[in-house]
Design brief:
Layout (H helix, E strand, L loop, with lengths): L8 H9 L9 H4 E5 L4 E3 L7 E2 L2 H6 L8 H11 L8 H7 L14 H4 L6 H9 L10 E5 L17 H10 L30 H17 L2 E5 L7 H12 L7 E5 L6 H10 L5 E6 L4 H7 L5 H14 L4 E8 L7 H15 L4 E7 L13 H18 L5 H16 L10 H19 L3 H4 L1 H9 L1
Parallel strand pairs: 1-4, 4-5, 5-6, 6-7, 7-8, 8-9
Antiparallel strand pairs: 1-2, 2-3
Bound molecules: iron/sulfur cluster.
Iron/sulfur cluster binds next to helix 2, helix 5 and helix 6.
């Protein structure tokens, strides 16, 4: 087991990570997200993605992960230097400590490292950085087909978003870092049409069938919406046809925007596959419908219960993207997950809190002070009441969120002044309302007065 019995996250960090270097993170070696539609990769969802060379993957499919950029970042981490793209973690680690807090905040590099064996971490640390490394955990997106167009997403990851831009033209009058996400259809995110051969997809299946299925511990399919991609079903069929030949755990991210008979096809696959399902949400009712355009709240909640009742999944995980608009109902949302934990068991459903940084005008940090303070108060109450109902990583994530809201002033080092972000916030949602038939003021009456001053 990577962690010792009763070892805390901070104890683990000191024992295993800090003795290697002050910036070591195993994700650079053993984890990757790869978007096959665009041929891009990154070591986790925080650093911006970079391009993989087609020429390299044609001769060596492992180049989908072992890019020159990652090799350079491994070298930096071996020397205790901080790769700039990992700013998300450095920002969490550099947060000033509140008066009543002793230990520094735990950043994601601890959670991204603790899942691997100590021996593998040693091997990574001492492997020459120019050498290819076999992946242990991989998140892969085959294409961007998706029926949702969430406000914090963009056309690079959703065909519903592409349709918005195609029909209505670019969003205008945005000046901060998110502006280009919403001004064009992101053709470079889908380099090949459905009828063309995509060399990145070809390389993935070549790698998978030759040896990746033997070395990979977890494969997580993301999107777009993976259940709408034929390649997802091709992979599921591979697992069914090669039963027992791969120990890879399969996980799928899904927005769960499907009728239960469609989910049944997935559950049928669990007869031969151990499956984890990850789904996204972070607020309640009309707030969720507003933020995650395309969502049917009742369908999402009843699908969650349907999956829990079925008991066929290895795990069900809710990923919360902490954006400005979810803060009001996030505590209630978390309470509802605790209720499900009480009914189905602490392990049956888990949550993670991922703090949004891009586009920075949708960051929770753009909100007025009183709204943030109210959220902090509610999160602290939730934290105090539920420590025993939650896993340690969930407790830590709630704690780091209220510390983040309390201590951090800017979403990232390149972000513009709050006043500019707030102006973009309003400019964006005014246009979003028009295009999507929504109404910000009616959905978030608690924010309406502030919104009208922007
Ligand atoms: S952002 Fe953090 S978790 Fe991700 S690769 Fe960098 S150090 Fe690791």
């Amino acid at each position: 087991m990577p962690k010792l019995h009763n070892e805390t996250d901070i104890g683990y960090k000191r024992r295993v990570i800090d003795i290697k270097s002050t910036s070591f993170c195993a994700a650079k070696w053993y984890n990757a997200t790869i978007w096959l539609g665009s041929g891009q990769t990154t070591s986790c969802h925080h650093p911006l993605p970079h391009q993989v060379s087609i020429e390299q993957v044609i001769t060596n499919p492992k180049a989908l992960h072992n890019t020159p950029q990652k090799k350079e970042q491994r070298r930096q981490m071996q020397r205790g230097e901080r790769p700039a793209g990992c700013e998300y973690c450095w920002k969490i680690e550099d947060m000033p400590l509140a008066v009543d807090v002793v230990d520094p905040a735990i950043s994601d590099r601890v959670y991204k490292t603790v899942i691997y064996d100590d021996k593998d971490l040693e091997d990574a640390f001492y492997t020459p950085p120019e050498q290819d490394v076999d992946l242990q955990t991989l998140e892969i997106a085959f294409d961007r087909t998706c029926q949702f167009a969430c406000s914090y997403c963009n056309p690079a990851f959703s065909t519903a978003w592409v349709r918005d831009i195609h029909r209505n033209g670019p969003y205008t009058d945005l000046v901060s870092d998110g502006r280009n996400h919403f001004t064009h259809e992101h053709g470079s995110s889908q380099l090949y049409t459905i009828n063309e051969v995509n060399p990145y997809v070809e390389a993935f299946f070549k790698w998978w069938e030759s040896d990746l299925h033997k070395t990979l511990k977890e494969l997580r399919i993301t999107g777009g919406e993976p259940l709408m991609s034929g390649y997802t079903w091709r992979l599921i069929e591979w697992f069914k046809d090669h039963r027992g030949q791969s120990k890879t755990r399969l996980a799928i991210n899904s927005n769960l925007g499907f009728t239960q008979d469609k989910l049944e096809r997935l559950l049928d696959a669990t007869e031969s596959i151990d499956l984890d399902l990850y789904t996204s949400n972070e607020s309640i009712g009309q707030h969720a419908v507003y933020i995650r355009d395309g969502l049917d709240w009742n369908q999402w909640t009843s699908n969650l219960v349907y999956l829990l009742d079925g008991g066929k999944l290895r795990g069900l995980h809710v990923m919360c993207t902490i954006n400005a608009l979810c803060l009001i109902s996030l505590p209630e949302f978390l309470w509802s997950i605790v209720e499900l934990k009480k009914k189905y068991g602490k392990d049956a459903i888990n949550f993670s809190l991922n703090i949004l940084r891009f586009p920075s005008f949708q960051s929770p940090l753009v909100l007025p002070k009183d709204v943030k303070e109210q959220a902090i108060e509610e999160l602290i109450k939730f934290h105090m009441a539920n420590a025993h109902n939650l896993h340690e990583f969930e407790v830590n994530q709630v704690e780091r969120l209220f510390n983040y809201l309390r201590e951090v002033a800017s979403p990232h080092s390149g972000a513009m002044d709050t006043i500019i972000l707030q102006r973009d916030f309003k400019n964006f949602y005014e246009q979003y309302d028009q295009r999507r038939g929504k109404n910000f003021r009616e959905t978030f009456p608690q924010l309406a007065e502030w919104y009208d001053t922007l």
